[in-house]
Amino acid sequence: MTSIYETPVGLPRRAVSIQINGEEVKVSEGATILDACKAHGTDVPTLCYGDTLDPVNACRVCVVEVEGNRVLVPSCSRKVEPGMVINTDNERTRHSRKMVLELLGSSVDLSAAPMVAGWNDQYQADPTRFGESKTVKQSVKIDNDLYVRDYSRCILCYKCVDACGEQWQNSFAISVAGRGFNAHISTEFDVELPDSACVYCGNCVEVCPTGALMFKTEHDMRVADTWDESAQQQTTTICPYCGVGCSLTLHTQDNTIVKVTSPHESAVGSGNLCIKGRFGFQHVQTLKHN
């Protein structure tokens, strides 16, 4: 019987030696190529990857070339193997990323995705060459005061489905409906969001990479052209609502809270919050204005 004073320790992992862009790198067995690239200081773009979720290989922006493989492989999920030789920035990978960015950018609005504009410049991607009219236009769904859904920005990365499902919240209010070109994100049985199983934790908003799910405060400010991230400050504090002790990062502009996130490296919630921690900041504004 294990004593309560004993701390269980996992089996040590052996180091695996690989090559990244001609340089030898040693990483722990079981790490992904993306993990190895981060440890090596090599930048690899990602969209559908979430550091608190299992990889789904949906966007294919992170593909790299592995010597001996016929096709490019997604670095977010491919595990390293001893002796693996990896190229992350040769002509083949750059061309693939350029095409992926162009195809995504021609079909959905990526203007709110923070890194995409820089990647387009880096890989000389021009989504407009497929035609300006190709972007899917959908009306923004505004059916509550907390967050909005703009599926014209959705790349079907499934991160919101995973965050709402068994990986974190276990509410299962979000799912994928339809097949093929008709596939889309939906509530269960396609009911209105207030009638669904949604508990408004906002963890789907936290992991959305493109702004398809967005704080209503941010959406309203973007519509009014007052949203300015360069003028915003971030302050990390502890949620005051209960004794769990979740970490909050308050995003403020003009001394007003405009949205709340949570550090993904937090040992308490790994970036996840409840409705109070994520959206319950209005009382602070009331006290400030009084």
Tell me the distance between the termini. Answer: 59 Å
Shape: globular
| Beta-strand content | 15-25%
Q: Which structural category fits the helices and strands?
A: alpha+beta
Q: What's the total number of strands?
A: 12
Unreliable stretches, pLDDT < 50, 5 or more residues? 1-5
Mean of the pLDDT scores?
89
For the structure shown, list the relevant keywords.
single chain, 290 residues, alpha+beta, Ubiquitin-like (UB roll), 2 domains, five-stranded mixed sheet, three-stranded antiparallel sheet, globular
Describe what this molecule looks like in 3D.
The termini are far apart. The protein folds into 2 domains: 117 residues, Ubiquitin-like (UB roll) (Roll); 143 residues, Single Sheet (N-terminal domain of TfIIb), CATH 2.20.25. The radius of gyration is 21 Å and the shape is globular. A 5-stranded mixed β-sheet has the order 2-1-5-3-4, sandwiched between helices. A 3-stranded antiparallel β-sheet has the order 10-11-12. The protein has 8 helices and 12 strands. It is an alpha+beta fold.
